[in-house]
Design brief:
Blueprint (H helix, E strand, L loop, with lengths): L10 H13 L3 H13 L8 H13 L3 H12 L8 H14 L3 H12 L43
């Protein structure tokens, strides 16, 4: 019903069916139900806080997209202040469960924004050290020594 394949699309009916299957512990249904709740579909008011435990249950069953959505919730402050460490934890889990390009991209954003540190297994290379104040890092002025003596020196 949520996609309308072979039936008329009906998000409200889909929510009822996803909820029944989620209650039985079916991970893909838990993810689908949490997604509907988080996005306010199927006649449900948008509620990330209510979706989080359902996403967690699905992620515990190795549903990569559920772990990714938990990363999004922490990254974008959907459930309180942004928590980049928690976001990274969930993005890494999503990518560990199965290759998750969206999670890898968001991990890179966090690393390149110096919000988290690169870890083994993260995409790309570690970010270069962050320069807080460029004026404090200028190299000493180069002092060139010349072979020719100055015009005022004696031979």
């Amino acid at each position: 019903y949520s996609m309308g394949f072979g039936v008329t699309k009906d998000d409200s009916r889909a929510v009822i069916l996803w909820e029944e299957a989620a209650r039985e512990g079916y991970g893909p249904a838990q993810y689908a139900l949490a997604f509907m709740i988080a996005n306010g579909r199927g006649g449900i008011e948008r509620n990330w806080c209510a979706a989080i435990p359902i996403f967690e249950a699905a992620a515990a069953q190795n549903i990569s997209d559920a772990a990714y959505m938990l990363g999004v919730a922490y990254h974008t402050a959907e459930i309180g202040p942004a928590d980049h460490q928690s976001a990274a934890k969930w993005y890494r889990k999503a990518n560990k469960i199965s290759f998750n390009q969206k999670a890898q991209y968001n991990i890179r954003l966090l690393i390149e924004g110096y919000l988290i540190e690169w870890q083994e297994g993260d995409p790309g290379k570690p970010a270069p050290p962050r320069v807080i104040n460029p004026d404090d890092t200028k190299p000493e002025e180069l002092k060139l020594e010349t072979e020719n003596p100055s015009p005022n020196s004696a031979p």
